[in-house]
Structure formats: structure tokens, C-alpha cells
Amino acid sequence: MKYVLVTGGVVSGLGKGVTASSIGVVLKACGLRVTSIKIDPYLNTDAGTMSPFEHGEVFVLDDGGEVDLDLGNYERFLDVTLTRDNNITTGKIYQSVLEKERRGDYLGKTVQVVPHITDAIKNWIESVSAIPVDGKEGPADFCVIELGGTVGDIESMPFIEALRQLSFSVGQDNFCLIHVSLIPVLGVVGEQKTKPTQHSVRELRALGLTPHLLACRSAQPLLENTKEKLSQFCHVPAGNILNIHDVPNIWHVPLLLQNQNAHYAILKQLNCLNTATAPDLQEWTKRAETYDNLTNSVRIAMVGKYIGLTDSYLSVVKALLHACISCSLKPSVDWIAASDLEDESSKLTPEAHAAAWETLKTAACVLVPGGFGDRGIKGMILAAKYARENRVPYLGICLGMQISVIEFARSVLCLSKANSTEFDESTPDPVVIFMPEGSRTHMGSTMRLGSRRTFFQTPDCITSKLYHHSEYVDERHRHRYEVNPDVVDKLEEAGLKFVGKDDSGKRMEILELPSHPFYVGVQFHPEFKSRPGRPSAPFLGLILAATGQLEAYINKYQNGS
Ligand code: GLN
Questions:
Q1: For residue 81, how far is the Cα from the chain centroid?
Q2: Pocket of ligand 1 (CB under 6 A)
Q3: How far apart are the CA of 481 and the centre of ligand 1, in A?
Q4: Contact call for residues 260 and 215 (beta carbons, < 8 A)
Q5: Please, what is the end-to-end C-alpha distance for the chain in angstroms?
Q6: For residues 117 and 161, is the Cβ–Cβ distance under 8 A?
């Protein structure tokens, strides 16, 4: 196993995740098998309890792991399926060490950060890197490890020490360190400043780690003399100084690295030039260029709760992008804070209310993504009603599907108080209810998480056709509530069809409104499995319907072309 460690210096938010996954892409393009590990030095055991407002989306894996959104980048870029253990947090490490301590495994010894925590980190990295993630057997050739945070943070110290020890034990042919840093431009002269990078490399070296490559983020390409300075003061050969300057879209990043021979520098450092082929990034080049040259766009109204931070819905945005690209369109996402659509807002914030409705009414389609808690629920119901009544293509994901059921029950079944018990425990018409798979009492274990199978109930529905008539589909879940099985017959009689269910037939997974051009709700989160070259079926359907191409697409596929 060859380890490529990616650390960050100077400031956070440099795009370390994208850099690390792009390095993985370039290595994969050289015919190598690549896996990845993300280290988050926070105390939470996983991202499940973290607010999307603060931390961006919680990404969900097949095995039910609730992880940092960077793992989504790795899955999308490297086209792999990671496990929860590929995300290491301080919380997980301490938990494992403390459990061992309680079991008496340390035989009466004093349990300390060094060596017990650092050993646990090393063991974790070594065992997780051996898990195959690309569908093939046996461990990958390379493991890209991204260390979250910035070098020098107190909380990342045990990880730095563990990685230093790892680099020593695996030897220099098996460990390559890439330090991502910022080259700011200051003042009227516009000089590219290297000092912050010099300092962060010095900090790293003081901790016993020497970077073999630098990946410098900058607005404009690095000047030759900036590179020379960096090389001289940071002790890194000029050929190993990579520059990731701003690019029109992130798919250019692997290309940028390839053009600067990043693969050559890494493979040379790891003494394995002869095991790799020349990188083949044709598909990436095509995709990056196609995107740059797209002229037509499609407007998608995203009606959600966590609107302030677009990272809160990162995978949904990526899935829209994948679907749009495959239709040669640029996505234009119009964010609508659901609460702005509500009647109350017309009095309190009339301008925001008017603007939200204007945006909704002029969009080509409506998407209500997942979410928790009751804020904005009324606004989402209004958006679903608007889309249903005006035959505007609608996709409801998880909460968005539950919203469409509540709306339909209220408007069509005339159950004006119909609700989810999540928002009104004593509703007389609970159309969405808590249906735990396991214990009712332990919050942590009541969430239905990870990959579950959905069986199509009929081949004659839009989603089955979009999923190319498979008998079933495996998608990822993250929810507690579900459509009440007792009201399914009534909803179906009134025209709402549940075309996908779990194996017991009790859990509703996909709904459609056959009288509508495209009105689809899914209890799962299809966004997590969308890939650049393989758009997710429900998203593709939404975009095709929004641009009047759905029927032609389905006919074309049915005719076998
Ligand atoms: N809050 C809803 C539930 O728990 C929906 C969750 C979601 O959208 N991810 O079922």
C-alpha cells in the first residue's frame, strides 16, 4: 500500500478535498487502484449530529455511515463505494481506545495519547486502506488520506504524530506528503506572497513531516519566480510545486494536475513509475470542456430550509449538475427559503415573499430536498401544491416526498389537518408516521440509514422506465418517518400511486401522480449515488420533464437505442 497524505496550511476552505480527490483521479487514470480516507479531527463520532447550516450536508454511505461531505467528493470523483470507517474522527478513535480501556485490554497500563491514541490511528488507517472500494478484490494500490483542518491546529496533533510514525514505518517509497497551501496576492503591486506557505511548511517540518509536493492555490497561475522562491524556502523541488489556480469548474482540477505532471512527481517519489501507465483523462477533458461551452440553462426552484449555505445540499446540486450535463444544459438553481413562501411572510417580509413566489412561478421545475424539523414546512407544502396544480415537474426527496403526501391528503382528500407526526404529534390524520426499523427509544438507532432495496410495483410508471425497467433499485436512506401504510389505499384511490415499495410492501418508497407530467416523490436520497457520467434517474427525469424531453427519452430507450 502506498499512502498519499494531503494536509492543508494557512487557511481552511482551500478546496483540500477537491485537490485530494483530483490527485486520486489522476492516479486512477494511470491504471492504479485508489481508495481514500478522510480524517476529521473533531470530537463528534460521526457527522450525523452536525447541523447542515454549519457544516454542510451529511453524506450517507451504503453501510449507513453518516459522514463528512468530502467522502461524497471521493465517491463521485473516484467512482468508489466507501465505508463508514473511511471517515476517521477523533471521536471514533477515542471511543475505540476508551472501550478497550474499560475492557481491561491495556492490562493496567496508563492509557495515553502517545502511544495508545496514535497507535489506534495507525491501525485504523492500515486496516481501512485495505478494504476494497472499487468492486474488485484485494486492497487498492494507493490510499489518499486527507487530513482535515489546518496544520498547527491543537486537535489535529495526535493525527500528525500518528502520520509521522506511519511515514517512518512504511518507509519513504510508500509515503508521499502533499501540502495544500494558499498563495495570496496583496497590495497594488499584486505580488504573489509565499510567506504564509513558508510558515506552514516550517510548522509541518517542526512536527516531523516534510512535504514532498506543494499544491498551491491561487487566483492566477503562479509566476516562475514565485515557484523558485517556494522551492528554495520550502525545500521542495520546483518540479514538485503544483499550482491549482482558479478554474471555471472543478472537473478541470485533475486536468490541471495532469498537465503539471503531478502523477510523475508522485510516482517518482514513491519509486513506482514503472507500475503505472500514462494517464488517460479523456472523459474528464470532455466533461470539463462540454460544461464550459454549454449555453442553454434550465431553472430549478430548490425549496428548502438550509438555503444560506449551498453546501447543505451539495450532493443534490451535484446530482442536478450530472443530470443537466447529460442533457447538454447548465443547471441554474434558484434557491427559495421555504418560509418565504408562507402566508405569514407576506406580512412580515412582503418583498421576500413576493420574490420567492416570482422565482417559484418562473422556474422550469421544483425540487423539495430532504430535511428535519418543522421550519418552512408550510412553504414546502405550498410549493408542492403549486407544482401539482400547475403541472410543473416536481421532485420530492425524502422530506419532499412526505410533503407531497401531506399536501395531497389536505387538498385532494380534504383532510385539512393531515400531517406528519414529526410536525404535529396529535394530528387527527397522521399520513406520515414514525416507523422505526429497530428500537423506538434510542434516538441514535431509530434512523433508517443506508442502502435499502425498493421494488417497483409496476413496469408502467415513469420511474421504472427511468431506472431502465429494473425489477428493483438500491438507494440510500436517512429518515425516521414514512407514509402511513393505513392511508395508502385512500391516497391511491384518489390518484396518487405508490409505484415503489420495500420488500414487506409496508414502506412506501416512490410515489407518482400519473395524471401529472412529472410528479415524483422518493423516500430515499438518490443524490448520493449520482455520478458525473451516470446521472441519477429521478434527477434526470426531472430535468428531461422540465425541458419537454421526457417522453422522447423514454420512447428512445424503449425502442432499444
Ligand atoms: N424528517 C424526515 C424524516 O425523518 C425526513 C428526513 C429527510 O428528509 N432526510 O423522516
A1: 12
A2: 370-372, 398-399, 422, 478-481
A3: 6
A4: no
A5: 43
A6: no
